[in-house]
Q: What sequence folds into this?
């Protein structure tokens, strides 16, 4: 008679579940309040804020222009920030002579700053009452009774054409231009500080003309013509080969 063995099943004792850590209610409340406060401050410091403007400032403009810019902006202290028409402010300020661009910025605490980029005086033209200062595009910056110092003068019915020619020059060459005259037909003539006359012709290929004039001035000519820049001409006592000379003593540079 054989003995039978009975397998006794083994059992693993059950582990009690770990207790979950509870976040204190106070921390939750404080976190929610912090978010609310941050969002609230961000809203108060935005363009949607009902808070009144405390101050309006101008940055980047000369002291002589600041009062005119503030008047054009039309922002009164005490106006609710959300009621400011920034597009309208920009349009009015840019319309001020001498202002190139403006950025309307909301600063802290509740201050509107007009960050202005002014136009740079580039040339001057005479008017019936004095002199008009022009920028690099030929737009008016300001008017004054006397001729501005350090700016080339442009005369004629189309001062903008003269400004276009001047703008094509290097600062070194432009600094030598004393006067620029535009004829009724659009032809441009210039007088340099050493008496050299430049026949520019009409506007067109202006950068090429400027480079050619710069190169020919090395020969110390009495006059230079770049009306056709691919075939410029100079006059004067120049030491150049005979094949470059014309019978009328005008020298053509091929």
A:
């Amino acid at each position: 008679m054989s003995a039978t063995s009975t397998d006794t099943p083994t059992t693993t004792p059950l582990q009690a579940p770990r207790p979950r850590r509870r976040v204190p209610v106070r921390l939750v409340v404080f976190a929610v309040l912090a978010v609310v406060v941050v969002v609230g401050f961000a809203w108060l410091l935005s363009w949607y804020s009902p808070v009144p403007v405390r101050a309006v400032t101008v940055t980047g403009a000369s002291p002589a222009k600041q009062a005119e810019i503030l008047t054009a902006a039309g922002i009164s202290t005490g106006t609710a920030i959300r009621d400011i028409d920034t597009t309208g402010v920009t349009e009015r300020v840019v319309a001020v002579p001498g202002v190139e661009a403006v950025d309307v910025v909301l600063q802290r605490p509740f201050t509107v700053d007009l960050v202005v980029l002014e136009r740079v005086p580039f040339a001057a033209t005479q008017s019936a009452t004095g002199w008009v200062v022009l920028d690099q595009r030929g737009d008016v910056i300001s008017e004054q009774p006397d001729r501005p110092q350090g700016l080339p003068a442009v005369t004629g019915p189309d001062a903008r054409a003269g400004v276009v020619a001047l703008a094509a020059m290097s600062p070194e060459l432009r600094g030598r231009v004393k006067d620029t005259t535009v004829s009724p037909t659009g032809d441009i003539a210039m007088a340099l500080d050493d008496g050299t006359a430049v026949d520019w012709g009409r506007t067109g290929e202006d950068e090429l003309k400027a480079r050619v004039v710069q190169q020919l001035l090395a020969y110390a000519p009495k006059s230079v013509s770049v009306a056709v820049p691919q075939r410029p001409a100079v006059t004067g006592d120049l030491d150049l080969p005979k094949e470059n000379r014309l019978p009328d003593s005008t020298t053509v540079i091929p």
